[in-house]
Amino acid sequence: MLSSKKTLEKNALTIRYGIMKAISSNRGGHIGGSMDLADMLSVVYTDFIRVNPENPRDENRDFMIFSKGHAGPALYSALCFKGFFPPERLENLNKPNSLLPGHCDRNKVPGVDATTGSLGQGLSIACGAAHAAKIKGTDQRVYCVIGDGEAAEGQIWEAAQYAAHYELDNLIAFLDWNNKQIDGTVDEVMKLGDPVKKFEAFGWNAQLVTGTDVIGIQKAINSAVTCHSKKPVMIVLKTVKGQGAKCIMEMPNNHCIALTDELKEKVMSELDEQAEKLEMEVV
Amino acid sequence: MQLRYTGGKAEKEPLQVFNETMRELFEEDKRVVYLDADLMGSLKTAQLWKDYPKNVFNTGIQEANMIGVAAGMYLNGLKPYVHSFSPFASRRVFDQVFLSIGYAKKSIRIIGSDAGIMATNNGGTHMSFEDVAMMRTIPDACVIDASDPVMFGELLKLTKDRPGVTYIRTARRDLKDIYVPDEKFEIGKGKILREGSDVSLIASGIMVATCLEAAEKLAQIGINARVVDIITIKPIDKELVIDCAKTTNAIVVCENANVIGGLGSAVCDITAESCPVCVEKIGINDKYGCVGNEQFLREKYGLTVESIVEKAKKLIEKREAK
User: Fold this and answer.
1) CA-CA distances (angstroms) from residue A242 to A19, A32, A71, B147?
2) How many interface pairs between A and B have CB atoms less than 8 angstroms apart?
3) To which H or E segment does residue A77 belong?
4) Is B70 helix (H, G, I), strand (E, B) or coil?
5) B191-321: CATH architecture
6) pLDDT (tens digit, 0 to 9) for every residue of chain A, 283 residues total?
7) Nearest chain B Cα to A122, which residue?
């Protein structure tokens, strides 16, 4: 049974609160590209991914490979929401001897499947895990998140070709198309073109979904998991970097920023407003 | 110990041993997979690909993706072996190996064929002299330069469940037979192939057989050389290196790789710290590769019996002069 829009929006907000908890504990970090994934993560972790917080390395689990490893805070917050660890741990982000390094680390954080940060490598890892499921004959699914700037890496397209060649229809990838990277917009730095057409040309089922449209994302994933098309699935999320907090979205550079007390307060009051609208109790 | 070294051609080429060993491994453990980046033709594994469609996969010419795929397959319970020519299995994919496998604490066996000068007519673009040094810098990696077909096969089996990065470089053809078929090997344990008290010749890969031949020549002029096959360049058999230093008080290290960061460097690290003795390094003296047959390349880079004999004699003179 799939969740309602309201439930998914509430869970997305919970994930955004978690991202803020983590990033503000370290007075800054990769906030833009973390916040804009909260809606997708809410849908995946509420309705779809089969994981067990009691046994994070359950050998029959589904996988979540965050190829854009710098969005670790978003994944960590989703894992915390799912019950992999208590919320206090979010405040350990990048602290000395941290058990929560900013970039995704599978050996430090329960529920993280891939250690990533050197961009371009995660989609290959996702291909390997998805292919292994086919070889073993299990129904495991592999979710993967790549960035739009990251799609400039050649290895992404090697993996795209591989996934289509081996008909990995148990691979569901998301491309976070926020059109921003460190040195400017993606159009300025290295044009990506139309990622939907590109992935289609590589033999994938690709579609465009608005990054805040939780029901649209839910439908896209549901159709990916129910129809066995022999093609890998790319869901291009049209996002706005910093999505969910206007004051972050409006900043020209919001990739990795310092979070002043003033900025933190602004974000928190925006999130509180949304919580009120959703009649959600904030813990 | 019993050896079957005659100096002649080996009974089986390493590529044949690879095929036979992988077959054995697939039969014994269905989780073993072998990935290749369009070089099955070179390793003669096309039949293996046909016979084991659930164990053998071609990634096409995409070495970086191949390492990532292997990382993902490991995550989901498989035991990957991957192959390409040694420069493409090391230099080209160093970051993928370092991060997606090493740092992420996964397990892989990388077979880099045509190591060093054994790339012969493929020339400098295909000739890896730096791979040993690079792979040694990966924490907890195991770095092996196969000296003999039996050793190659046994180490393929021995490292099946080894955590971390295992890098095995080898020639595809033209290794000499050294070990008897039931010889046993251990990671981190070198072997004394010939005893001697005047000088130690510590070698890896194709240079082990060359050292056995050089030891014969040295014996003819009254120099008794100990010959050591180091087996694993990393982890290195520190005890054995120290024993060589103490017993013979002079060491010639021989390798088919750049002398910077290779076996010679590893030996010098140990002697400098624990037992300083005179060491000479024979290897590629910080040069790029080039086209040629094995004999030409051996002469060009000084990987010959004569060069070992010369260095050993000079080293002994130097020691006596002290």
Assistant:
1) 11, 4, 12, 57
2) 108
3) helix A72-82
4) helix
5) 3-Layer(aba) Sandwich (3.40)
6) 999 999 999 999 999 999 999 999 999 999 999 999 999 999 999 999 999 999 999 999 999 999 999 999 999 999 999 999 999 999 999 999 999 999 999 999 999 999 999 999 999 999 999 999 999 999 999 999 999 999 999 999 999 999 999 999 999 999 999 999 999 999 999 999 999 999 999 999 999 999 999 999 999 999 999 988 999 999 999 999 999 999 999 999 999 999 999 999 999 999 999 999 999 987 6
7) B68
Tokens of A97: 């001897």
Q: Which of A63, A129, A155 sits opposite B65 (nearest CB)?
A: A155
CATH code for position A14: 3.40.50.970
Of A128, A130, A135, the CB nearest to B54: A135
**Chain A residue with Cα closest to B70:** A128
Residues of chain B with CATH 3.40.50.970: 14-170
Q: What is the CA radius of gyration of chain A?
A: 17
Indicate yes or no: CB of A107 within 8 angstroms of CB of B105.
Answer: yes
Contacts of B164 in chain A (CB under 8 A): none
- DSSP string spanning A102-148? SS--TTTSTT------STT-HHHHHHHHHHHHHHHT----EEEEEET
Task: Tell how strand B142-145 and strand B199-203 pair up.
Answer: unpaired
Q: Which two tokens stand for residue B214?
A: 């050089």
Selecting from B64, B65, B76 the residue whose C-beta is nearest the C-beta of A133 gives B76
Contacts of B65 in chain A (CB under 8 A): 124, 127, 155, 158-159, 162
What is the spatial distance between Cα A132 and Cα A126, in angstroms, rounded to a whole number?
A: 10
Structural domain including A106 reads: 5-277
- Assigned superfamily of B14-170: Thiamin diphosphate (ThDP)-binding fold, Pyr/PP domains (3.40.50.970)
For residue range B170-220, list pLDDT tens digits in order: 999 999 999 999 999 999 999 999 999 999 999 999 999 999 999 999 999
Number of domains chain A contains: 1
With CB atoms and an 8 Å threshold, state whether B99 touches A125.
Answer: no
> A5-25 and A72-82 are packed helices; what angle lies between their axes, rounded to 10 degrees?
120
Gap between the Cα atoms of B101 and B163, Å rounded: 10
Write the CB contacts of B242 (distance below 8 Å, at least 6 apart in sequence). B270, B271, B274, B275
What CA–CA distance (Å, rounded) separates B18 from B156? Answer: 8
CA pair distance B150, B183, nearest whole angstrom: 8
The answer to whether residue A155 sits within a structural domain is: yes
Cα gap B150→B152, rounded to integer Å: 5
CA distance B307 to chain A (A): 44
Quick check: is A203 in a domain?
yes
Tokens 């057409």, located at residue: A197
Rounded Cα–Cα distance for residues B297 and B119 (Å): 10
> What is the least distance, in Å, from the CA of A116 to any CA of chain B?
7
